[in-house]
Please model this.
Amino acid sequence: MALATLPVLKSQDHPTLANVFAADEERAHWHDGALWFVRQKRDRQANSVPEWEHLRELASQIKEHAIANVADYLEKFESNASALGAVVHWAADAKEHNEIVLKILKENQVSRIAKSKSMLTEECHLNPYLEKNGIEVVDTDLGEWIVQLRHEPPSHIVLPAIHIKRQEVGETFHEHIGTPEGNSDPEFLAHAARNHLRQKFISAEVGITGVNFAIAETGGFVVCTNEGNADLGASLPKIHIACMGIEKIIPRIEDLSVFTRLLARSATGQPITAYTSHFHGPRPGGQMHIIIVDNARSDIRSSPDFHRSLHCIRCGACMNTCPVYRRSGGHSYSNAVPGPIGSILAPALEPEKHYSLPYACTLCGSCTDVCPVKIDIHHQLLTWRRELAGKKIIPYSKRLAMKFTSVLLRNSWMYKLAGAVGRTGLRWSPRWVVYNPLNVWGKGRDLPEPPRESFRAQFAKHKSERHGVEDNHSSTSSSASSNGKPH
Amino acid sequence: MQPINASRKSILNKLRSQPLPSNPLPEVIHGDWLRYNNPIEQLGNVLRSVGATCESLTDMESVRAKLQSYPEFSDAKRVLSQIPEIPGNVTLGNIDRPHDLEDVDFLIVRGEMAVAENGAVWVTDKDLKHRVAYFINQHLIMVVRKADVLHNMHEAYARVKFSGPGFGCFISGPSKTADIEQSLVIGAHGCRTMQLYIVD
Model:
């Protein structure tokens, strides 16, 4: 299959790309509903485990310990994995990662790869690199295969094709594997993919997988899938290449008792994935290569504000619950990992390209509430805004507006005056004056009707009324009067 | 034969140059975890919810009889059985390439344990020459002893051990995908059906 390289999304900011997605109102609502459905499934599973909050706390503690001692655990992992017969490689960045993969392929004179889902290889843009070098890569996760055939990047880390409708999948399959035109039945299409990809598995010479958890104590690693594609891909060919970020390390095999209870429940609302595979060394006569990748993770770890984002186990729960992600789609983030967690990680890699992501957030905190490893996601996004404003990366118009607001909020007379002007102005100005192109708050929505008097005026009035009441009923308890309502 | 790698040194040095406060690792095996009055009933309920079946029978002979009563099983062309009481017609020892298992209809194996909270059955490649057998078949039949039905994953990981190269997998239900519009389809790349039998 000769595939064109994936289109690298132009460096556009989140609001611009979100506008494109939201322009198709019907699709945007459908996308919102599809993800909310997954969030509800997650809630049912989380509620079925009485010790859920305790598990989150344990997961957070294990990750904190693992990331604090990551160098020691990586060395321990390397030495144990090597003892099992695996070859461990280290890559400082995406480029080195891709070169190591190609070198392994060249040394073994192989060119057909069955790849299972790995967000790290997406992050490194491995597919276009290998295709440029004449290697055939087939993404075998159904969702990833769909987006690969359509020359699109995944829009979600767990549900790569969540933005695509069944009719579009039907058209793509008709074009590429000859399914009947107009057939868009998910069961039919999934089985057609099964039959087609079986042949790819049989002819593959190398299997590439990601890593969900790398176990320092044993030198093994765990891959979780529902489709069984990672297992077919890693168990038929003689060569298995597993790619992992440094943050995938966990100290002990028993730590999996916590993570396997949290991961699938948080991700898709399943009690556990259909397959939780533990690989320890190559199978007899085979080769196993493990590539440990940094790619700016050590920079994130060095940041006192953001190092906790490395605790992420890539479940995607923060995306499913995010009101902005659900209504703007994964592609609007222009990053391999979109959504709330991606908005912390991406600016650490390329602040100039991804400056708008920490603003793609209402600070509602829902992501933090569902995160299975208790990352304080929305707090970190707020911190990013301060950092980016300090670095003068955000656009001048936004900086100017913030400067103006800062002055306004520090001067009580200016604040009072602005309030009075706003209340009167909004009531009497003609519509075209208020909803002018400069007023971004008036885009796509009506502003609320301004109150007749300011909060200060209302508060002063209530206070004097309350005093009057208290004078008449001096026996009223202070707790009853503290709610500010005359009785 | 470790490749000499400058990046290894620079990554580790960089990670060590920035100390982070460390906390002790928590206890995760012993604890006040979820338990069930009737774990076997719970196991069956979870497995049915993920598209598998689960049935308690007295012994292996009843499993054999039960399987024989299904035309799909009695008519199957290639059956790979790892359980002596249930005969198959594929001998794993004679197969060199794992690819030659492609047309196996049924795999019948013992699971070492089954977990009530999520329907996960633990299997390993200890006695299975080609581990792909777990994933390449159309129908997976697993048998677990009643005494090996556990309540939760903490009990399970207390028993999971690796002391050398090997492969182990928790399998919970047939393979599945919901990648087309969140519409659940059973039978992705691995098995299309899974049956678990609990025997005394």
Remarks:
- The longest helix of chain B spans residues 6-17.
- The radius of gyration of chain B is 21 Å.
- Chain B touches chain A through 79 residues (CB under 8 Å).
- The CA atoms of residues 47 and 119 of chain B lie 5 Å apart.
